[in-house]
From TrEMBL:
PANTHER family: SULFOQUINOVOSYL TRANSFERASE SQD2 (PTHR45947:SF3). This is Glycosyltransferase family 4 protein. The keyword Transferase applies. Residues 35-205 form the Glycosyltransferase subfamily 4-like N-terminal domain. CDD domains: GT4_PimA-like. Keywords: Glycosyltransferase, Transferase. It comes from Nocardioides deserti. InterPro entries: Glyco_trans_1, Glyco_trans_4-like_N, Glycosyltransferase_grp1. Residues 216-324 form the Glycosyl transferase family domain. Pfam families: Glyco_transf_4, Glycos_transf_1.
Length: 400
């Protein structure tokens, strides 16, 4: 890369590493095996950077895993105990104990640069503060704007965070990386002068691919899915911003809805029209995409990766009519509707009932999917941003 690590701040605890490589700290409120889109991105990026020769240390909560430090695919992952009971109410906000303070300080002190996933979370606030005190450069990937949560309290808390600690996190970043032009526009509107640069999430084209001969039937048999019916797929956490209740209520004649992401919630009645497969590995999720006909994304206030994964896998895709979704740039490759349970049911009944309609929509989607960046392209750009942040910090240090 041609850039050496920035000058030491005392004993940084750096291990020997190749010339030009960096020690990169990563903070994400959740990390796999916890299920979610941000978690997928955090792992892809951390693993990819480690593969390129960097030392990568992830600081996260123990949601979905055990507290402690492990090495996973070359990445050093430290999971801290945290209360995550708020997630049951659709608020993915782990509340860390005091251990976060010294772990955050250690991560900032030992890193050349820190990569923060979103400014909305307690772990991001504490690590960003430690970075600012220690003059460690950091960059922020901004995954969402203001989430249109149905709870007025949650919306007020988000607004308060943006005006206070969230603003400080973004203003102190060497670079803010919104994942879409819509989130960039939102960031610039709320924080004029923020140093933003759109960096779209990548896609693993080897994992998410169209079905080969016999794939669909084999996968349906393996997961006990009906082989002669139209299957409509939902992938994600069962929370309001993902539109889970809308999709769950949209069961109709001529298709069954398959849910991946967790067990059936207690408030959703058992029905032969709804099939819950639980939380699955990435490989199994990719196989389920290929085994289904239509994918539905009812998210509000965010542009998740799932529609792009579904397009690459050969699904016809129906999405919510939402500005953040439109910012994904999927155009006529998806069917966009103002999504309610009634409108979605009507759309799906029409789609599966019209000969060739599902195949036609899937064909349009495949052409759009070819324009989605790969993870290699994403990492190339992110690595450039991280190197520039370290170089900028070194210049400041050398100039006193």
């Amino acid at each position: 890369m041609g850039v050496s690590p920035r000058p030491s701040k005392g004993d940084r605890g750096l291990t020997a590493r190749p010339t030009g490589s960096l020690r990169i700290g990563v903070v994400a409120h959740f990390y796999p095996p916890h299920v979610g889109g941000l978690e997928v991105v955090a792992k892809q990026v951390a693993t990819g950077l480690a593969t390129r020769g960097h030392r990568v240390d992830v600081l996260t909560s123990a949601g979905g895993g055990q507290p402690g430090t492990t090495v996973e695919h070359g990445v050093h992952v430290t999971r801290l105990r945290a209360f995550d009971g708020l997630e049951r109410h659709g608020v993915p906000f782990p509340v860390f104990g005091p251990t976060l303070l010294w772990r955050a300080w250690t991560l900032a002190r030992r890193s050349d640069v820190v990569h923060v996933h979103d400014m909305l979370y307690l772990s991001s606030w504490v690590v960003a503060l430690a970075c600012r005190l220690l003059r460690t450069p950091y960059v922020v990937t901004q995954h969402v704007g203001m989430v249109e949560h149905p709870s007025r309290v949650v919306r007020l808390v988000q607004a308060l965070v943006l005006r206070t600690v969230g603003s400080l996190v973004l203003r102190g970043a060497a670079s803010v990386l919104p994942i879409s032009p819509t989130i960039e526009a939102w960031t610039r509107e709320k924080l004029p002068g923020a140093r933003t640069r759109v960096l779209r999430n990548g896609i693993d084209r080897a994992l998410f691919r169209r079905a080969e001969a016999g794939d669909r039937a084999a996968t349906r048999r393996r997961f006990g899915l009906p082989e002669g019916e139209h299957l409509v797929l939902f992938v994600g956490r069962f929370v309001p911003k993902k539109g889970f209740d809308v999709v769950a209520a949209a069961a109709g004649e001529g298709y069954r809805v398959v849910f991946v992401g967790g067990d059936r919630p207690a408030h959703v009645a058992e029905s032969p029209d709804r099939i819950f497969l639980g939380a699955l590995s990435s490989e199994d999720v990719a196989a389920i995409y290929r085994a289904c006909d239509v994918f539905v994304c009812a998210s509000v206030g965010e542009g998740p990766m799932t529609p792009m994964e579904a397009l690459l896998s050969g699904c016809a895709v129906v999405v919510n009519k939402d500005p953040a979704m439109r910012a994904l740039g999927l155009g006529d490759g998806v069917l966009e509707i103002a999504m309610t349970a009634e409108s979605l049911r009507e759309c799906l009944v029409t789609l599966v009932g019209r000969p060739g309609a599902v195949r036609e929509l899937a064909s349009r989607g495949r052409r759009v999917a070819d324009e989605v960046p790969t993870w290699v392209q994403h990492l190339d750009e992110l690595e450039t941003v991280l190197v520039a942040a370290v170089g900028g910090a070194a210049d400041v240090t050398s100039n006193g």
